[in-house]
Amino acid sequence: MKETIQSLRRTHWIALAVLSVASVLFYRGTWSEMIGTWWTDTTFSHGLLILPISAYLVYHGRRELVRTELQWSWAGVALIAVLSGIWFFGHFVQVRLIEQMAIVMILQASLLATLGPQFIRRFLFPVAFLWFAVPFGKGLVPPLMEATADLSVLFLRLSGIPVYRDAMTLYIPEGTYEVARACSGIKFLTAMVALSSFYAYLMYRGWRKRLAFVLIGVVLAILMNGFRAYLLILIGHVTDMRFDHDGWHVRLGQILFVVVLFAFFKLGARYRDDLEEEKGAVPATERAGASGSMLQGAMTILIGLIAMGLPAVTGSTMVAIGPTADRLAQAVPPLRPAPGWQSGPLSSMAWRPTFVGGSDPMEAVIQNADGQVDVTMRAYPIPADEQNEMVTFHNRIQPDSDERLYPERLRRLTIEGYGDIQVRETTVKGRRDRLVWYWYDIDGRLAATPQKAKISEVRAFLSHGPGVQKVIVVSTTPIDDGSERLLQEFLRDHASQVLPGNAGS
Question: What SS3 string covers 228-284?
Answer without folding.
Answer: HHHHHHHHHHHCCCCCCHHHHHHHHHHHHHHHHHHHHHHHHHCCCCCCCCCCCCCCH
